[in-house]
Design goal:
Length: 430
């Protein structure tokens, strides 16, 4: 089966070809330079760039694979969530290609594709506990199959990746800033008390990084020298990895402002990674019980069940729950709020992390340590496949088409904030 994957959900135009699970070609054009002047993605510019590039990129990926459009069996396209204008460009192109060639059309949940990308190099063992951490989302899922993923916790306001980009902007670093903060942090020392661990003093699995973003902004405002040092670093473009005896890392700081910048970035990276680790460990406790060698947590007094899970947060209107049990979600974007463990639930067999922030070295180290303590394998996409790419969409489309799933031409693009429906049509397995 030859599957073409099309990704246009934000500011990367990416296409890839997968044959029976093996990646045979992929191309991508990033719009980072287009949006850098504005410090973030401008939706109108993004959709225009997708429209300008997608045809030529399709020709190029076919050329690299040595195939023609007539050879394609499945056209998989990211249907959302994302920027609506950008999604519509990819959706329109995919529908036209499917109609012209007779290939099956498969709409792919962009978030699920990120998680499934961890299974490109090796098979995912189901069930799996997954962490999706990107610019727009910080979610925890229980993966039952390539199609069925249960959302356990979600972003309530700012996602981790957005916090990285906003802090980088406050410092005067170029967009996107997450990778830069990671690299600068490797030259500094972690101060574990510089930043809070946001929204962890509760019993739920949700995330809120707005407070951490604000805390970092206050540090920048109180120390103008940090921004000056950041601008100097950006101008020199010297972001190479430090040696083990870095002047700042060993305490012999010749430039206090520069070393202060490194230390702030190290501490911010550590705070984000530690927050993700705390929540994922909590999810693992619910799914599998206490980690080996650790005592069970003490019971807390106070609010229980749904009230504790909300912890003062109002549910969005699109978060709907099945009234049959009052707990299990009725849609892909429903949440399981403090659900009691099921007696017959199968423990998760692995941990998965995906999304752009999963490429962060601090995050990878924290999750590697958690997986080691839990005695579970940690599956991570390569750093190149953590960010948006066509390979993950092609891989997810191939998985779904292999199950006999697909869509007709009435397939809709779904912007951020709306539920991605499980509206597949059953076809003959390709």
């Amino acid at each position: 089966m030859l599957c073409l994957g099309i990704e246009t959900s934000c500011d990367e135009t990416a296409l890839a070809l997968v044959r029976d699970g093996a990646v045979i070609a992929d191309v991508m054009s990033s719009q980072a330079d287009v949006h850098a002047l504005f410090g973030g993605v401008v939706p109108e510019l993004a959709s225009r760039e997708h429209y300008r590039l997608i045809g030529a990129l399709c020709d190029e990926v076919l050329r690299r694979a040595g195939v023609t459009a007539a050879d394609i069996d499945v056209v998989a396209v990211a249907r959302g969530p994302g920027l609506l204008g950008s999604l519509l460009v990819g959706m329109g192109f995919a529908k036209g290609l499917a109609l012209a060639t007779g290939a099956r059309l498969v709409g792919v949940n962009h978030l699920h594709a990120h998680l499934l990308a961890a299974g490109i190099a090796e098979e995912l063992p189901y069930p799996t506990l997954g962490l999706l951490v990107s610019g727009g989302h910080t979610h925890i899922y229980r993966l039952e199959s390539p199609r069925h993923m249960r959302l356990l916790g979600r972003t309530l306001d700012d996602a981790a990746g957005e916090a990285f980009d906003k802090v980088a902007k406050q410092l005067g670093l170029a967009y996107p800033g997450g990778r830069t903060i990671d690299e600068l942090g490797r030259k500094g020392r972690v101060n574990p008390t510089m930043f809070p661990r946001p929204y962890v003093d509760n019993d739920n699995l949700d995330f809120s990084f707005s407070g951490l973003k604000t805390a970092a902004g206050l540090v920048v405002q109180a120390n103008p020298a940090l921004s000056q040092a950041a601008r100097a670093v950006a101008a020199s473009a010297d972001l190479s990895a430090p040696s083990a005896d870095s002047a700042c890392a060993d305490g012999a700081a010749p430039d206090s402002a520069l070393c202060g910048l490194y230390d702030m970035c190290a501490s911010f990276n550590h705070a984000v990674a530690d927050t993700l680790r705390i929540k994922l460990e909590r999810a693992l406790l619910r799914e599998n019980g206490p980690l080996p060698g650790t005592p069970p947590p003490a019971k807390k007094k106070g609010k229980k069940g749904r009230a504790a899970a909300r912890d003062g947060q109002q549910l969005a209107m699109h978060e709907i729950f099945d009234p049959a049990d009052g707990c299990s979600p009725s849609s892909e974007h429903g949440r399981a709020l403090d659900c009691p463990p099921e007696a017959n639930r199968v423990p998760v067999r692995a941990l998965v992390a995906a999304g752009g922030v999963a490429a962060n070295s601090y995050v990878r180290e924290a999750l590697t340590d958690l997986a080691r303590r839990a005695g579970l394998p940690l599956l991570l996409p390569t750093p190149a496949l953590c960010t948006d790419n066509g390979v993950m969409v092609a891989h997810a489309g191939w998985r779904l088409a292999s199950l006999g799933l697909g869509h007709d031409l009435a397939l809709e693009a779904i912007p951020r904030g709306r539920t991605i429906p499980d509206d597949f049509t059953m076809f003959r397995a390709v």
